[in-house]
């Protein structure tokens, strides 16, 4: 009721805690563990039926991480590191989910988590300096601090294809895959979307389906994962000096120890191009292929060297030259959309029952009751798989009706793009923190490193407030504006803003256009956050 919402202190409160954390993925789990250790009362609210976040929801065949699992792992507890050994270079979704469950059990986290509980609204009470949250289960929860650990890639994009609701066959979303799996044996299957989820699942679906038709709007760059045992380059330094390796990761550009090259693509020879590209291609890792040359994300000519060599690889693998050309990305610079890691993706198009449809030349007119209609052809399917991505970085946050000081909603404030200070907080919404939020390195990094850094920073900040006898923290307008300028300046010297990517918000119709993460590097960012904290939270008002 409106009256209740505007005078929250007058209504019944079901739970009253120091901190509410939304989400029980890797961010929420570690946040809960840290805060509990520090003596705060915490409630975690999670829409899913269990822990794991990304790894709970994305159960499509072939789902794996794309950062080596030795790096995509918590590092906050050496004993945890000893207790868990990853089975391969890139673990599967079930193994990563088991890891999240293992962590939840080891630290007895589930007792403070409400599952199957979605937060729908949050309202700041300025007089009492408290947040009041409402859930879809009818709970009213009050808290002093409110942490959105709700994920950067957790809100699936709603299908924006005409007629999607008409199809009478089976419909699947990679991001909401059935827990019992799907058997496509003997079925005619359509997959829409060729981002990481499509590229990982397509080879698996092709192994079962009698016919597979892939609907591609934009080809993506993909490199072979070369999955198998953990690479010696990662295992040896970890075994020799685990803490040293983790330290190097925390102070690296992308959260994974990697050579920092000074070799410029535009100034080096063909031999150097080939040698460095081959080594990166062989590594089967994203960070080496994204840093073959120091200038590849800055200048088109250097970038084109890498792009051309990926095209050559595609042409070597795909036998039909026309199909090979369709699979070669030419509309965006290499790395400006997240490149994919695959196992047998391009080779799948050599199979006789697999067909590629180029939606640029043959757009979908409508999804029909029995299949998909293009302008010049109609195709019938038993199943349609949407691998169409997410409303990334801001979607899950603004899908909660969050009202800050004076009733301004976050959706209104961010109508032209998100504004944050350090990707952690936003003016007008005191005591609200986001983990890996817009304006932080987030999705451009090994997320585990970024998650731990944000959780630790927030935990330290709350401890300092408590120690200083303060109840509130909020950024200043000047700090927020300054950070926004810096985030944009960093992006603008790169090629990133030139692509129609989800990094730019370009994949969701109507979403404001702007580069969402901070591209200045995990190391520079950590330095900035540490400096702010060490200077009595410079750029924040505390009271
Ligand atoms: P999430 O794991 O997304 O968890 C957020 C949780 O919040 C979800 O469980 C969601 O249900 C819940 N939630 C959201 N809104 C609400 C609400 N209103 N009420 C209640 N609950 C809510 N990153 C890497 O660094 N390396 C990788 O290899 C990698 N692989 C990926 C593979 C896939 C298929 C995808 C989709 C992403 C991948 N990512 C990867 C990014 C990945 O999202 C992060 O690494 C990490 O798992 C995010 O953890 P999180 O806890 O921040 O968010
Ligand atoms: O989503 P995407 P994703 N009609 O947005 C197409 C992480 N991740 O789930 O490019 C037709 O990348 C769309 O086409 P276009 C990783 O960070 C990691 O695959 O917009 N097509 C695109 O091809 C990743 O980047 C892994 O022209 C439509 C595809 O659908 C992020 O999550 C695995 C369409 C969506 O690709 C998102 O990946 C999975 C339409 N109306 C995810 N709408 C790992 O490997 C969209 N598309 C670890």
Automatic annotation (TrEMBL):
* Cofactor(s) needed: FAD
Instruction: Recite the UniProt keywords alphabetically.
Output: FAD, Flavoprotein, Hydrolase, Monooxygenase, NADP, Oxidoreductase
Report the GO molecular function annotations: hydrolase activity
Protein's UniProt keywords contain Flavoprotein: yes
Q: Which family, according to the similarity comment?
A: Belongs to the FAD-binding monooxygenase family.
* Listed name of the protein: Alpha/beta hydrolase fold domain-containing protein
User: What organism is the protein native to?
Assistant: Variovorax humicola
